[in-house]
Amino acid sequence: MSENLLEIRGLHKSYGNVEVLKGVDCTMKQGDVVSIIGSSGSGKTTMLRCINMLEEFQGGSISIDGEEIGYEMAGAQRRRKREKEIARQRALTGMAFQQFNLFPHMSAVGNVMLGLVKVKKMEKDAARTVSEKWLDRVGLLSRADHFPGQLSGGQQQRVAIARAIAMNPRLMLFDEVTSALDPELVNEVLQVIKSLAQDGMSMLLVTHEMRFAYEVSNRVIFMNQGLIGEEGNPRDMFHKPKSERLAEFLKTSSFA
Amino acid sequence: MGYTLNFAAVWRSFDDLLLGLGLSLVLAFGAILMGAVIGLGVAFALMAKNRLVKRPAAIYVSIIRNTPILVLVLFTYFALPQLGVRLGKIESFVFTLAVYSGAYLAEVFRSGLLSIPPGLREAGLAIGLTETQIRTSIIAPLMFRNILPSLSSTIISLFKDTSLAAAIAVPELTFETRKINVETFRVIETWMVASCLYVFTCSTLAALMRALERRLALPR
Asked: Does the global pTM surpass 0.80?
């Protein structure tokens, strides 16, 4: 039994003939806040999406609290677990998306409640109480009955974060959550993430906000062409990059 | 021009026209209800990745949509009994219109499914919902809202298609009109009144659908 929260070993993923992940290894402990940076096409988002099986992967393994995600061995044959089992495993992680993906026909509180009622089988009243608590936590209790179409991008993203967190996941995955936002709305979302991190939530973030990655994470991973190019604590990574690639990447990114 | 309009004969048989209209509505709603069930299943089948699911659905849609409805009505009523399937006039017509509307509604539903961003399914998966839960709680309600305008015109179109039941002597509105016409020789008056009844019913249906659309509109 490992003490690691997340353990990724030799992760391989291809789309047809294009190999996107070429053997990624990564571990996280409870309470870690890890940022993944790198240029587009380096495999950051794909890696994140493999962790909750939104992408299938062809080789390697991912486990959360020692439990293997998505696949099992039947003799020598590797096969996908049953859909019900995968659905249960997906709830071990929470995910926030670049495009928010709120359900447009449900109010903010309805969005947060859905998983609690359908997956956790909570009573509606109890689910509502929990949902309101989390909406309050992201500063949107007063908007509980608003629909996504009535909320700003930043507010939608905060509801989406509340929706994920309310499920009480072991690990939160953030996939470029501020990339689709107007500049003046970025900060409110980053503040929410930061305060969750301070509360000890384990999280893995794909981000282009270098300054934020520097401030919030205790470890930074630089992905390059489907492999981990370099990793370390944010100070070393940003101020003393070892590899040429990372130095180049930091020069072209907005980190100053 | 020696023709003087005289509606008296038509008014005397107006009850028959109304009964005919009632039957037209029953035929249409029975068929559309069954057609919606068929159409929903076929729409999901058309979107499936598995070719064994997708192909038969596509063949069904293409055969039905490329055959005139009158031919289908006559085939079901006259040809199927030769193959040992015996249905009454009304059952036969409702069955035909259901199969026919299934193909059209499948396309309407499919267009609604295509307009739903794939990210919503992923968001559902990410909180641990199963595919079935995603379909019932997220996809279906959104699709239904998206298609209301085109659903409205499809329903009206299918309602008007019930007039073809006259071809196999189902006593719906068109059949009743022809009967009164033959009995009274008031050609212009009878067909004029029947047309008005069709127009009135169709615009009422359209208004109801618009009201539903407004009611279900998402606040923004």
From this structure: yes
* Interface TM-score (ipTM) > 0.90: yes
- Using one digit for the tens of pLDDT, what is the confidence trace for A119-139? 999 999 999 999 999 999 999
Residue B150 inside a domain? The answer is yes
In a domain? residue B1: no
Asked if A114 lies within 8 A of B127 by C-beta distance, the reply is yes
Nearest to B142 among A54, A94, A105 (CB): A105
* φ and ψ of A59, to 5 deg: -150, 160
Q: Which residues contact A109 (CB under 8 A, 6 or more apart)?
A: A128, A131, A132, A135, A144, A145
Please tell me if residue A162 touches chain B, with a CB cutoff of 8 Å: no
Instruction: Tell me how many domains chain B contains.
Output: 1
Chain A, 204 to 243: residues with Cβ < 8 Å from chain B are none
Supply the CATH number for residue B20's domain. 1.10.3720.10
CA distance A245 to A230: 9
CB neighbour list of residue A82: distance below 8 Å, 6 or more residues apart? none
Q: Is-contact A253 A210, C-beta < 8 A?
A: yes
Domain assignment of residue B2, yes or no: no
Residues of B with CB under 8 A from a CB of A: 117, 119-120, 122-131, 133, 137-138, 141-142, 145, 218-220
Q: At what angle do helices B14-47 and B140-161 cross, to 10 degrees?
A: 140
Q: Tens digit of pLDDT for each residue in A162-216?
A: 999 999 999 999 999 999 999 999 999 999 999 999 999 999 999 999 999 999 9
> How big is the CA angle at A59 (ends A55 and A62), to the nearest 5 degrees?
65
Strand A33-37 to A219-224 pairing: parallel
- Domain range for B191 is 8-216
Assess if residue B3 is contained within a domain. Answer: no
Alpha helices in chain B (DSSP H): 8-12, 14-47, 51-65, 69-74, 89-114, 118-126, 131-134, 140-161, 173-184, 187-216
